[in-house]
Amino acid sequence: MADTPERILIRGVNWIGDAVLTIPAIKSIRRAYPKAHICLLAKPWTAEIFIASPDIDEVILYEERFSGLAGKLRLAKLLRKNNFDHAILLQNAFDAAFITWLARIPVRIGYRRDWRGFLLTSAIPVTDSIREEHQVYYYLNLVNSASIETVETEPYINLTNKERAWARSLLRSAFPGNGSPLIGINPGATYGSAKRWLPERFAELIKGIISDLKGHVVLVGSAAEVEIAREIIAETKKTGLNNIDSDILLMSGKTSLRELAALISECTLFVTNDSGPMHMSSALFVPTIAIFGSTRSAATGPVGEGHRVISKGLSCSPCMERECPEGHVRCMADISAGEVLETVKNLIPEKPAVFLDKDGTLIEDKHYLNSFDNLVILPKTKQSLTRLVKAGFMLIGITNQSGIARGIVDEQFVKDSNTSLKEKLGIEDFFYCPHHPDDGCSCRKPEPLMIRKACLRHRINLRRSYVIGDKESDVLLAHNAGATGVLLSSTPLLEDSSASYIAENLDDAVGWILQRESEEVSARQNAL
Description:
By secondary structure, the protein is of the alpha/beta class.
């Protein structure tokens, strides 16, 4: 963009999955123009995705009252009153360009397609190469072509603490105890029947989850997909399982989009057709198994590492049809329940981890450490961490490094010092947030994004994991992520602290964790 905009209108897309895939592009716009007022124009059913987004200041709902020519004129008048100086059209339709032209927004940026190029001030060509890319890059290419530097390519859906608490309370009531895997299953797909795996196969899969893995299942979907879920439950009962009502929670048609996101975020793993909930799951960094038939996973599969796509790659697929032209949906029928169950078994997170704050926990807090001369590992740190490793814990560093954004700390030094600590202390991996606290980013503690990335990358069992740190933000991180928090402090435990234990030092924290683990192992053995 030639000028620095003060008020930006983003025209969002109309499908839930596509909306998720626009998140990195919207984040890039926010990073490029942190002081701009950014407004999203979106349909009501996709707007919910962005409710807790730090990148959106305002949402205007594209409601039914704006349909027809008269409605479009009313919407254009509303937009004109908002004095937007730039419009970025993530939606491809002619309608998006027409309305922003009617609203007299001076700069209108979008792809040159759907006969709308003459309405745009910056019409970006749709090349063959960008058509071949994953759809997340389709939107990133648009903002890149508008001279906006792109940032993260993985979408992330922000949840509120209230939403997380609602989902956890519901699941605790349905499945008392937290030791069993919780597998989310989404058997529907709005686009058409050609994208849906067979109900009897889902039933066989559920039988395996309950009988082989001793797991629980939560069935999700829209109100239009309730009958599919009920059919699957009926088929599951035919497999010979008894009393499955205590092992299956039917939530199809019972949640809002935000509630659905919160439920998915609490799942150990998510099995789904190519659908909006599939993209939501990967954007919540939940291990996702996506079953593909008529559509192209290279373009619309789950984004990021740690997920799996199951597809037979038949000569007739991807046909991109809503219903199978040959009537038998072989691309789905050839995928067996055993194959999906085996993938579930291989993808379930198993290993517990201890997530460790850096400054004040592993090393002396020098307030924006920026040289190796001042890097001092705290006493007994190596010995304490060795005890955790011997007990089977993976060690992961999690640290806020706002000194990078403040210009005080060189980012390369942070990377080098993290590498040094990994080698010296046996830490498996390090994750850091380089942003300023005022940036409103999604990765800064106590937001759980860094932990979710670590869990997906290393197949970590979050429910059996711990966070150790010397600040309340560390134990809040544990609470938000669903782990157990240990606070290092000489101050008595405050009533409003999220810590499960207050430790005098790292060695004390490790002792408490190992004792707690020993007691829980004994309890599980006695239960058997």
